[in-house]
Design a protein that fits this description.
Organism: Alloacidobacterium dinghuense
Number of strands: 8
EC number: 3.5.1.19
Distance between the termini: 8 Å
CATH class: Alpha Beta
Number of domains: 1
Helix content: 10-25%
Radius of gyration: 16 Å
Largest sheet: 6 strands, parallel
Number of helices: 6
CATH topology: Rossmann fold
GO biological process, one term: pyridine nucleotide biosynthetic process
Order of helices and strands: EHEHEEEHEHEHEH
Structural class: alpha/beta
CATH superfamily: Isochorismatase-like
Protein name: Nicotinamidase
Pathway: Cofactor biosynthesis; nicotinate biosynthesis; nicotinate from nicotinamide: step 1/1
CATH architecture: 3-Layer(aba) Sandwich
Shape: globular
């Protein structure tokens, strides 16, 4: 698969709290780091996203007195409740120490509003509030985005689907992601990708 100047690599949330030993570890999450480091030099446009939550973020189970991974109703609908994670300015919110960030044109922080969680790099969970990423990519004349990182079935999934909704081609690099695997989230993700026209490839399809 040929990468051109109209392609961007979105590296989603490769942060300490999503890696082994973190507050919300994605199984084998650190395994994406060397893979992404091999991929990023292939792209002229690289964007990193970073969960950046206030301490009383709406999606934290501790705020509601409920168990992590349960759900609650909020103003914009059902919200999964998570362990406190990626709190702004903490080591947990920092990128994995081995992730090569030198090629990033943009670091996009998301989830920094106290009353709205944000999975997608393009819009927050209220499905109204935009992050500005779509406009940024259009300014660079990007037409297709490739996605890698954490977690396949949450922030990668929502970012890919919202990329399609914003008018971009979207390609998820499946073996450059890892999944949380909460209930049937992986199967739901694959079905949604098929429905929305999100392509899935392997690293070997790019590094030829």
């Amino acid at each position: 698969m040929k990468i051109t100047d109209r392609d961007a690599l979105l590296i989603i949330d490769v942060q300490n709290d999503f890696c082994p030993g973190g507050a919300l570890p994605v199984p084998h999450g650190d395994e994406v780091v060397p893979v992404i480091n091999r991929l990023s030099p292939q792209f002229h446009c690289v964007v990193l996203t970073q969960d950046w939550h206030p301490r009383e973020q709406l999606s934290f189970a501790s705020r509601h007195g409920k168990e992590p991974f349960s759900t609650t109703q909020v103003a914009y609908g059902e919200q999964t409740l998570w362990p406190d994670h990626c709190i702004e300015g903490t080591e947990g919110a920092a990128f994995h120490k081995d992730l090569d960030t030198t090629r990033a044109r943009l670091i996009l922080r998301k989830g920094f509003r106290q009353e709205i969680d944000s999975y997608s790099a393009f819009q927050e969970n209220d499905r109204v509030t935009k992050t500005g990423l779509a406009g940024y990519l259009r300014e660079w004349e990007i037409e297709r985005v490739f996605l890698a990182g954490l977690a396949y079935d949450y922030c990668v999934r929502h970012s890919a689907v919202e990329a399609r909704a914003a008018g971009f081609e979207a390609v998820v690099i499946e073996d450059a992601c890892r999944a949380i695997g909460l209930n049937d989230s992986v199967e739901v993700t694959r079905k949604e990708f098929s429905r929305c026209g999100v392509a899935q490839v392997r690293v070997a399809d790019i590094l030829v």
